[in-house]
Amino acid sequence: MDKITILNSQEQRQVFFRLLKYVKPHIKQIIIAFVLLSLVTIGEVSGPILIKIFIDDFVAPNNIVAGPIITLASLYLFILFTSAVVMYIQSLKFQEIALKIIQQLRIDVFSKVQTLGLRYFDKTPVGTIVSRVTNDTEAIKELFVSVLAIFIQSIFLFIGIFVAMFILDIKLAALCLLFLPILIWIIHMYRKLSSTSFSALRELIGQLNAKLNESLQGMSIIQVFRQEKRMRKEFNELNTKHYEAGIHNIKINGLLLRPAVDLVHIIAILIVLSFFGITSMESTIEIGVLYAFVNYISRFFEPVNQVMQQLTFFQQAVISAARVFKLLDEKELAPQQENRPVQISKGKIEFRNVTFSYDGNQKVLKNITFTANPGDTVALVGHTGSGKSSIINLLMRFYEFEKGEILIDGVSIKQYNMNELRQKMGLVLQDAFLFYGTIKDNIRLHNEELTDEDIIEAAEFVQANQFIEKLPDGYNQQVTERGSTFSSGQRQLLAFARTMVTNPKILILDEATANIDTETEEMIQQALAKMRKGRTTIAIAHRLSTIQDADLILVLHKGEIVERGNHQQLLAQKGLYYKMYLLQNGHSENIADVVQQEI
């Protein structure tokens, strides 16, 4: 779970200014929106002045002249109509800019996720990542859609109102300026107190998503082992924490948002009315000026209330942006390549004294050294946790290794272009992953260079065509999420076809037949034999019967190669491989020896 991060004022400013960098590509549209906003402000400020003229020049002196009044009324209506149209256009502009900014931000975040190394995904729950790409960017959208637009509009309106107030009465306008420090203090206290609850809310949303994702992915296991009660309890604990953080935030909002501002507003009205009341004892006052001042005071505090309400979204956006930027700044990238113009032509693989650790402490591979000559099959066997899959992970460049060298055709694996490695190395995992789409899409994987004939040929090569052609839509049959409507054997055959369609030089099989039934396995063993011809093959297998024809078998134990040779040589050594072979073939008289060896 992510640790809840509290941002101080300086960190919030840094995050906010970093967000503003996304505005630069839209500066022209921003200028247009500002011009329109200034026109709206002029319209907002002009209304009370026109009414003041109407009251003081026509109503109070009982000077009802039709022509000037009609002109004044027409001007007032024109300003109202024009302001409404311009306000709609400028609001549309701000919304358009905001959506484009969030669109780019989401692209940046998703692109960053594609570049991260598997170490990052090993330590970060999937739900947390999903929350940052969806919920957090959605919260940031509100910053650009609502908050900034209202903030800027309020600033324009503040300036316009104070200019108009100073025109009407300098002393009273100066007196009203004294309320600004009070409002600024309220805003500061709100930001300070709400920062903690907003940080907790965003982090807990990510944790709730992670828990929900875990529950949905493992629903069958939860139900089989009757873990529903425990999962409900854990989810309820997180949900309660989220509720408490929300209640804390509501209390802060209830105290420092509208009530506090309304209190200052009432005091301001009382001061204005008192000022005019005292002034009226010495000289006459203009009713229109009094109306305009009271109107401006109300107009002044209304945007203040709007700004205070938007501070909620501002805090959420800044906290969410900090979480998104933390992901964008993540240093746990996939292994980097030197991208030299070298190509894999033969497929010779060499491991030279390779040592590797996932966490930097416990070594899972220790001084691994072996050679797989072009066209040879090298099998990796050993008990769970012996390091077989780690060798595959390093060869596929999923992880960076600390010591030693891995060479392909005499060139360090780090010097190849990643596209070259991916094109010339085919990987089939134990659990075949299928994407939503059609069978044809899953074999092609959007490689436009592949024709329909290539796809059919690959399917026939691994004998997947036998079940594909029986489907109602054939190669256009829809594949549901993760291929849940197909058997594990059928999914694996499609994975074989996906790998072979690119005609790789190196074939990597990570227990590729583990989930396939005996009948299907017998069918694809023939395909595997064809697949291995002319290709260097690295195969992980638990069932020793599937790799007896391998050119070299490496027996791993606790991260080290303890035995090596072909099937007959290893049996003759009567070591760990021999005991594993006897155990798998049901020689009960040797089982006790194997157990003792493990102890």
From TrEMBL:
Residues 31-316 form the ABC transmembrane type-1 domain. The chain crosses the membrane at residues 30-55, 67-89, 143-166, 172-190, 260-278. It is found in: Cell membrane. Pfam families: ABC_membrane, ABC_tran. It is a multi-pass membrane protein. The keyword Cell cycle does not apply. This is ABC transporter transmembrane domain-containing protein.
